Amino acid sequence: MHTLHQAVAQCRTLVVEGPDGIGRSGLLTELARHGFLIRRAREQLHQVDPCRPYRELLAAPGLLAVNGSIIHELVYGPLRRGHSRVTWIQALDFAEAVAERDGALVHLTAPQDQTVSQRQQDMEGAEEIRAYERAFRTLARHVPVVTVDIAGLGPPIRAPASSPFQLGQGTGKLTVG
Predict the structure, then answer these.
(1) What's 154's domain CATH number?
(2) What is the 3-state secondary structure (H, E, C) of the chain?
(3) Has this prediction a pTM greater than 0.85?
(4) What are 9-59's pLDDT values in tens digits?
(5) Are 67 and 28 in contact (CB under 8 A)?
(6) Model confidence pLDDT, tens digit, residues 81-99
(7) 45 with 68: CB under 8 angstroms?
(8) % residues pLDDT > 70 (the chain)
(9) How far apart are CA 138 and CA 145, in angstroms?
(10) Which structural domain range is residue 19 located in?
(11) Distance, CA of 162 to CA of 152 (rounded, Å)
(12) CA-to-CA distance for 94 and 88, rounded, in angstroms?
């Protein structure tokens, strides 16, 4: 699977994740238009089993798009609290559960100047971006990862009847990690 279009056509599950401040609403709206049920886990992780809310989400029938995931905790836990409440074993189990549900992770990226308050300047932003890249590179051994540069997603346009999905126009970077 190399592009977002292929992921939408081939996957029952898409987990949309990326740094804080990257706009997801356009992508999630388009996924909803194409039959994906959009869900987000509770803000607070379960104290004993942080992956539990995600397992519950993945148990839903049909097409599912999850807005955010435990990858956020893998990245921001160490940056903001010095440690993650999610272990790598739990994250790998999550990735395998997504794969078993015919799914993929969608790694959203953006030019640095398009992220939250310019990412408290570039130092924290660069560290955050590296942490996301490392997390997706590791998880890609267990589940397909599609990287989408949101700068390349144009305004949503209607897909012709013969096309199963068209997200927008533009020549954005769409790669597999």
Answers:
(1) 3.40.50.300
(2) CCCHHHHHHHCCEEEEECCCCCCCHHHHHHHHHCCCEEECCCCCCCCCCCCHHHHHHHCCCCCEEEECCHHHHHHHHHHHHCCCCCCHHHHHHHHHHHHHCCEEEEEEECCHHHCHHHHHHHHHHHHHHHHHHHHHHHHCCCCCEEEEEHHHCCCCCCCCCCCCCCCCCCCCCEEEC
(3) no
(4) 999 999 999 888 888 888 999 999 999 999 987 666 667 778 888 888 999
(5) yes
(6) 899 989 999 999 999 999 9
(7) no
(8) 73
(9) 10
(10) 4-176
(11) 23
(12) 10
Please state the length of the chain. Answer: 177
Number of domains in the chain: 1
Q: How far apart are the first and last CA of the chain?
A: 10
Structure tokens at 72: 């956020």
